[in-house]
Design a protein that fits this description.
Blueprint (H helix, E strand, L loop, with lengths): L5 H22 L1 H8 L3 H6 L2 H26 L3 H27 L3 H25 L1
Length: 132
């Protein structure tokens, strides 16, 4: 495994992005909007090119960090999944939770967003297992 490999990182970020598209589109779109207190008009008023572009760049950063960690440790496939999901459970979801406490977000909003990070990281881990 190389410390940085473009194709696995792109594919891992793409997997996370697809999970987000399904999560906030088909699966939990309306529930998330309600929990976030965002109207259809507010959703439509956003610059989607900037939002989606930055989302993908952030997911690329996450993928680069995880890939680098995996390349340095060369774990077994099941450990790749444990690390991916563990990063979501142990770092990302608590960070979201802390912010949501101070922002006074609802538990429903937290659970929808936390679920996205959990499933997205699992998808990224699965892609990295395939590229290993």
């Amino acid at each position: 495994m190389n410390d940085f490999a473009l194709w696995p990182v792109l594919a891992g970020a793409a997997a996370f992005f697809v999970v987000g598209a399904l999560w906030y589109g088909v699966i939990f779109g309306k529930a998330w909007q309600k929990a976030a207190g965002i109207t259809d008009e507010q959703v439509q008023s956003g610059n989607m090119l900037v939002i989606f572009g930055l989302t993908f760049l952030f997911e690329m950063l996450i993928a680069m960090v995880l890939w680098h960690l995996l390349a340095r440790t060369n774990p077994a496939p099941h450990v790749i999944m444990m690390m991916s999901v563990g990063f979501a459970i142990g770092v990302m979801i608590p960070a979201i939770g802390i912010n949501y406490l101070y922002l006074r977000k609802t538990f429903t909003h937290f659970m929808i967003d936390a679920g996205h990070f959990l499933v997205g990281m699992a998808a990224m881990g699965g892609v990295f297992v395939l590229f290993r």
